[in-house]
Amino acid sequence: MADHNAEHKHGSMNIRDHEKTFAGFVRMSVWVAAISIGVLIFAALVNS
């Protein structure tokens, strides 16, 4: 279990890994959105 008696100083945590993970998530989301839009446009052009 966590040690509840430990002193925590606000703003002292290293968040570099969190920032890299979030940047990867945003990058992947943009790619998925772009590919989805591309597929929809392709499907609309082929179907017409």
What's the rounded overall pLDDT mean?
Answer: 89
Content-based structural category: mainly alpha
Helix content: 55-70%
Taking Cα atoms only, what radius of gyration do you get, to the nearest Å? 21 Å
Tally of individual helices? 1
Which outline best applies? rod-shaped
Distance between the termini: 61 Å
Could you name the ranges where pLDDT drops below 50 across 5 or more consecutive residues? none
Q: Main sheet?
A: none
Count of individual beta strands: 0
Measured by DSSP, the beta-strand proportion falls in under 5%
Order of helices and strands: H
Overview of this structure, please?
The protein has about 50 residues and is an all-alpha fold. Helix content is about 65%, strand content about 0%. The model has no long low-confidence stretch (mean pLDDT about 90).
In short:
The chain is mainly alpha-helical and 48 residues long. It has one helix at residues 16-47. The model has no long low-confidence stretch (mean pLDDT 89).
What keywords describe this structure?
single chain; mainly alpha; 0% strand; 1 helix; 67% helix
How are the elements arranged and paired?
Blueprint: H1 16-47
